[in-house]
């Protein structure tokens, strides 16, 4: 079994792709705090970077923004064809060494943007890592807005294939499905219900493989009746999967972080901790001896395989029902927000897991109390942490998000989520509006093996005398 597995892994590596780099961290992206620290240090350039998990602009009746794509060499960008449009989304693929050091990454980003003359505002940036220096690139999708009647918001996001299933061949549709689904996920969380459109970002070293990827993209967009604009491959010559995505809502956005009040409750739409099953399953494929080790700890290969399949399913199938639910609890565009009727705020969990709660505390400048932490595969996650196999065992798949409401709204939102096969739980509440901090009653260190991540968490939690 391992021999076949490593043969396929070798094919990925030959194509310029890292199929296993994500295993310890459950993601192939730069850690969010490392990325934010790096971008905050980017100064003295014409580029304004304000990291966020999405971008949005007014939706003009019947008009989608126009997207202009530019792909650059990350180390030596040539900007003769620079676009004089003031807004963009960016995707970077950078060398692994940079992705773990915020100072090195900051210097590399500043060097990249130094030659840009036109001012550009970038709110949504996604940064993937690669062990292949020749596979590095930077992509800017410039957004040009139309004039017209404002009827709502167009929301935009971009994404890459965070994880890979190297038990399947490199040309498998699962990889492009994951990239496209990830791009759509945050649009659903924002309550978007119409106008879904994807702009795939992909590459491969052979024309045959590019054709197979295009077939897979067509299959996905046809299955879900989603519009697609194909700009062709990015022509770097190394395997890559990603996308930019947009969609519309005629409601107000559920991102009122400044209006969160003491006593408001936090719902999580699905349990945390679904991603470690993927990593542990890959460890059994990498080394057959791990199967015996896991089974001796009560983790059978059958259970692990089923959990892995469930996580892959969530990663590769869009949750459009989530968008309809969120939209139901948002005021119509231009109308007044009512805290006792509407959702106040949302925030994705994703592979950040518990650290998404810290981010929510920062965005709302609040003290959050967590009383319950529902985990998808609790014993599996504890084992992965105890054996130092996974950095953060609270890492979650798509469908797991934080939703902030008053008690008057919580019950209805929870009921609607359950009716659409989510597993929602009220996990805590906002205690004080003073400074970002988190009190967690569950013993969180049972799920976080990374000393640096745990140190960051405890530095916030210990301020309130908790652990």
Characterize the structure shown:
The structure is a single chain. By secondary structure, this protein is α+β, with helices and mostly antiparallel strands. The chain has two domains: 2-249, 60s Ribosomal Protein L30, Chain: A (2-Layer Sandwich); 257-464, PurM-like C-terminal domain (Phosphoribosyl-aminoimidazole Synthetase, Chain A, domain 2), CATH 3.90.650.10. The protein contains 14 helices and 16 strands. It has helices spanning 2-14, 32-40, 96-99, 102-113, 173-189, 207-223, 276-286, 289-296, 301-316, 320-328, 355-364, 378-386, 407-419, 451-461; strands at residues 47-52, 55-60, 66-72, 87-95, 120-130, 137-144, 150-160, 194-203, 227-228, 240-249, 265-268, 345-348, 367-370, 401-405, 425-432, 437-440. It has a six-stranded mixed β-sheet with strand order 12-14-11-15-13-16. β8 (194-203), α6 and β9 (227-228) form a beta-alpha-beta unit. α2 (32-40) crosses α4 and α5 crosses α6. It is globular and about 55 Å long. It starts with a helix and ends in a 6-residue tail after the last helix. 49% of the residues are buried. Residues 462-467 have low confidence and may be disordered.
């Amino acid at each position: 079994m391992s021999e076949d597995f490593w043969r396929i892994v070798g094919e990925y590596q030959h194509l310029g792709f890292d199929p296993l780099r994500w295993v310890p961290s459950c993601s192939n992206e730069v850690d969010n705090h490392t990325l934010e620290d790096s971008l905050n240090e980017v100064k003295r350039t014409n580029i304004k970077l304000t990291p966020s998990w999405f971008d949005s602009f007014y939706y003009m009746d019947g008009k989608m923004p126009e997207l202009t794509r530019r792909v650059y060499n990350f180390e030596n960008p040539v900007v003769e064809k620079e676009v004089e449009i003031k807004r963009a989304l960016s995707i970077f693929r950078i060398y692994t060494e940079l992705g773990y050091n915020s100072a090195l990454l900051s210097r590399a980003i500043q060097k990249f943007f130094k030659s840009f003359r036109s001012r550009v505002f970038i709110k949504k940036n996604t940064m993937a890592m690669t062990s292949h220096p020749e596979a590095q690139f930077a992509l800017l999708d410039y957004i040009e807005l139309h004039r017209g009647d404002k009827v709502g918001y167009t929301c935009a996001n971009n994404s890459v294939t965070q994880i890979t299933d190297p038990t399947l061949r490199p040309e498998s549709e699962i990889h492009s499905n994951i990239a496209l689904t990830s791009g759509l996920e945050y649009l659903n969380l924002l309550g978007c219900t119409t106008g879904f459109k994807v702009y795939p970002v992909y590459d491969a070293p052979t024309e045959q493989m590019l054709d197979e990827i295009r077939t897979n993209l067509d299959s996905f967009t046809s299955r879900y009746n989603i519009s697609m604009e194909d700009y062709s491959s990015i022509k770097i010559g190394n395997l890559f999967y990603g996308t930019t995505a947009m969609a519309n809502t005629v409601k107000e956005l559920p991102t009122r972080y400044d209006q969160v009040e003491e006593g408001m409750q936090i719902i999580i739409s699905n349990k945390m901790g679904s991603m470690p099953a993927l990593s542990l399953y890959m460890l059994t494929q990498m080394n057959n001896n791990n199967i015996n080790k896991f089974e001796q700890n009560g983790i059978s290969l059958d259970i692990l395989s089923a959990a892995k399949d469930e996580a892959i399913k969530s990663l590769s199938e869009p949750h459009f029902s989530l968008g309809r639910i969120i939209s139901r609890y948002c005021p119509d565009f231009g109308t007044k927000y009512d805290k006792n009727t509407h959702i106040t705020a949302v925030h994705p969990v994703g592979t950040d897991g518990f650290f998404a709660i810290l981010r929510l505390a920062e965005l709302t400048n609040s003290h959050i109390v967590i009383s319950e932490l529902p985990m998808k595969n609790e014993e599996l996650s504890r084992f992965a942490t105890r054996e130092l196999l996974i950095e953060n065992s609270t890492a979650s798949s798509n469908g797991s998000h934080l939703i902030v409401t008053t008690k008057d709204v919580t019950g209805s939102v929870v009921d609607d989520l359950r009716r659409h096969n989510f597993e929602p739980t009220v996990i805590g509440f906002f205690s004080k509006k003073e400074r970002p901090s988190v009190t967690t009653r569950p013993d969180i260190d049972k799920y976080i093996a990374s000393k640096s991540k745990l140190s960051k968490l405890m530095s916030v939690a210990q301020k309130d005398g908790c652990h």
